[in-house]
Amino acid sequence: MKLIVLSCVLACAVSLPQQLLSPKELRDIDRAAVITSFTNENLADGSNENAFTADNGLERRERIVLKQVEIINSDGQTEYRTVPTYQGSFKYQQEDGQVIERTYVTDEYGTLQIDGPDLPLPVPDPHPQ
Length: 129
What we know:
Blueprint: H1 2-14, H2 18-21, H3 25-31, E1 35-42, E2 48-54, E3 59-72, E4 78-93, E5 99-106, E6 112-115
Antiparallel strand pairs: 1-2, 2-3, 3-4, 4-5, 5-6
Signal peptide: 1-15
Protein name: Larval cuticle protein 16/17
Organism: Amphibalanus amphitrite
């Protein structure tokens, strides 16, 4: 009889959802985060602005602008293509309470630049061309 009771208790303990056993409460808070505001606006020129905030401190804003890029195709002909460029920011809180903020920009060639107050600055080129 003791073996049956012990087996039942063990089966119940093993079948508990793992997130209840996690020591990281912040992970559980993030999973239960509620979106408190959301916008998504498509503009007439094809660009887009979107943003959201959540009750756990997460914020994100982004603007997508379409640009025309001149390229030379494989036949040597000039073509124009529409490509997206991005500009935005996001903010979140780490487990220790520190708020991390980042801004980012991409150009029509896909170059990504990320900035934040705690990120190191690039070293200037001592021999600019």
